[in-house]
Structures are given as structure tokens and as C-alpha cells.
Amino acid sequence: MTGSFAYPRNAFLGFDHIFDQLENIHLHSKDTYPPHNVVKEAEMKYTLEMAVAGFKIEHIDIEVKDHILTIKGNRPQRRDQDKYVHKGISARNWVKSFRLSEYTEVTGADLTDGILTVDLEVVLPKEKQPRKISITKNEDNKNDSNSAELLKEHS
């Protein structure tokens, strides 16, 4: 996919997937339906809230593949379109995608009162988690004697 993205792709080798993702984000940046919030609940926990009035659980599909969270709303028409005198409530089908970080996992979803909530948590593997390094007291004073010897040698 090549388009109007501002960076010279030919200067970056092996980054095609990143440019494709950035172009996709740019193309869909004006797409605001259905409206949504992202709430930071704790340091490593987030909630995605989507206003999906009129959609039932069986009309909504949630999938995660290759760190892309895709939520689709697909419901049948409620009535014949020509019966409407005025139609101000949107009933269109939609697809929303969100790029998840490497360690972000979807931990649950709920639909209550027309609000779909999707729970997300960043789960770092043990080797990526911060760890404390203990400081021990050098009882032998080895470093002090070694330093003194080195100073004598270089004098």
C-alpha cells in the first residue's frame, strides 16, 4: 500500500508493516462512528468504551489477531427504510480496529445499557518487569585493598 504518507518509504528498509499501519491509521482517523472512550483504570489496565445503542450481543463480534483488536457491529434493519418520516438514529453497520501493544491482552468484554466495554491489560513477561537490585555490604574491604595496591603499582 503506497499513498500520501509523508515519509520517504524508500529510505527505510524492512519497515513496510509499520508504514502500512500508519497509513491505515491516517485513512481512518476521521472515522468516529461509533463513538468511543479509552479509560486508564490503573498503571497497566485500560477500558475501551463504545456507544453501541441498538446493538445486541449477537450483533457484535470482537476479535484479536496479530495485535489488532477488531470490533464489528452488524445488525439487521429494524424496519423498511421507506417507513421512516425522519431517521436521526444511526443504525449502520461498522468496524473499528485498534492496534494493541506487544504485551496488551483483552481480558474481557461486557455490553450494558448500550455501552460495550472491553477490558485490556498490559501483561509484561517476567524478564521485562522491573526488578530491584540489592546492594550488599563488602565485609572484606577487598575493593579498598585492591585499590590501594593498584595505586602503589602506578606510582
Can you walk me through this structure?
This protein has 155 residues and is of the alpha+beta class. Helix content is 16%, strand content 32%. It has helices spanning 16-27, 142-154, and strands at residues 36-42, 45-51, 60-65, 68-73, 94-99, 104-112, 115-122. Strand 3 and strand 4 form a beta hairpin.
Helix content: 10-25%
In terms of DSSP E residues, the strand content is 25-35%
Strand order of the largest sheet: 1-2-7-6
The major beta sheet can be summarized as: 4 strands, antiparallel
Using DSSP, what is the number of strands? 7
Mean model confidence by pLDDT: 83
Q: What is the end-to-end distance? A: 68 Å
Number of discrete helical segments: 2
Order of helices and strands: HEEEEEEEH
**Stretches with pLDDT under 50, minimum 5 residues:** none
Rounded to the nearest angstrom, the radius of gyration is 27 Å
Shape: elongated
